[in-house]
């Protein structure tokens, strides 16, 4: 999910995307979700949000709304058929907009990830001290990871640098 959100936010012009308000004064109805964004994307989002006078969350939600409204994807997540015209947010019906808002509401925030280990015994978790996601091997060794081409890989360069500075 993180890779597709990174791709969506990189593909959309956040400087001109129409700002949307998803919750307003309503009570929160969706659980929070945590996603990993590229560092350069986070810096870009912060800079644009400051310039536009909005929150980072509002800018991310607006960017995702703009991107996915252009996609015109079906409920199954499959790409649209060639005969389908992607709907823009302004052309959506009230019901379509509500479905989009609900889908985006399920993406926003911080939700605890799964605690189960993979079949090889490794698992991933967020380390608040390092402020990044780490891989925990079966042996208990911890490795910082980086998102490279949409896949998690051990960030051995940063792991070595941290060991030397401690």
Instruction: Give, in order, the helices and strands.
Output: HHHHEEEEH
How many strands, which pairing sense, and closed or not: the largest β-sheet? 4 strands, antiparallel
Q: Give the rounded overall mean pLDDT.
A: 75
Strand order of the largest sheet: 1-2-3-4
* Domain module tally: 2
> Distance N terminus to C terminus?
34 Å
Report the β-strand fraction as a percent range.
5-15%
Report Rg: 18 Å
Helix content: 25-40%
Number of helices: 5
DSSP strand tally: 4
How would you describe this structure to a colleague?
This protein has 166 residues and is of the alpha+beta class. It has 2 domains: 2-105, no CATH class; 123-165, no CATH class. The protein has 5 helices and 4 strands, in the order ααααββββα. It has helices at 2-11, 39-52, 56-71, 94-105, 156-165, and strands at 123-127, 132-136, 142-148, 151-154. It has a 4-stranded antiparallel beta sheet with strand order 1-2-3-4, covered by helices on one side. Strand 3 and strand 4 form a beta hairpin.
SSE order and pairing:
Elements: H1 2-11, H2 39-52, H3 56-71, H4 94-105, E1 123-127, E2 132-136, E3 142-148, E4 151-154, H5 156-165
Antiparallel strand pairs: 1-2, 2-3, 3-4
In short:
This protein is an alpha+beta fold.
Could you name the key traits of this structure?
5 helices; 2 domains; 37% helix; single chain; 166 residues; elongated; alpha+beta; four-stranded antiparallel β-sheet
């Amino acid at each position: 999910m993180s890779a597709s959100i990174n791709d969506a936010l990189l593909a959309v012009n956040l400087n001109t995307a129409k700002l949307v308000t998803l919750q307003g004064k309503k009570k929160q109805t969706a659980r929070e979700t945590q996603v990993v964004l590229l560092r350069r994307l986070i810096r870009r989002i912060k800079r644009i949000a400051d310039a536009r006078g909005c929150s980072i969350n509002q800018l991310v939600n607006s960017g995702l709304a703009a991107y996915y409204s252009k996609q015109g994807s079906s409920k199954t997540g499959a790409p649209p058929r060639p005969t389908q015209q992607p709907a823009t947010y302004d052309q959506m019906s009230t019901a379509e907009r509500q479905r989009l808002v609900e889908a985006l509401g399920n993406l926003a925030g911080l939700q605890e990830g799964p605690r189960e280990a993979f079949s090889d015994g490794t698992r991933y978790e967020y380390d608040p001290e390092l402020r990044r996601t780490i891989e925990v091997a079966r042996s208990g060794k911890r490795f910082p990871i980086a998102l490279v081409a949409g896949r998690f890989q051990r960030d051995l360069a940063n792991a070595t640098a941290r060991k030397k500075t401690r």
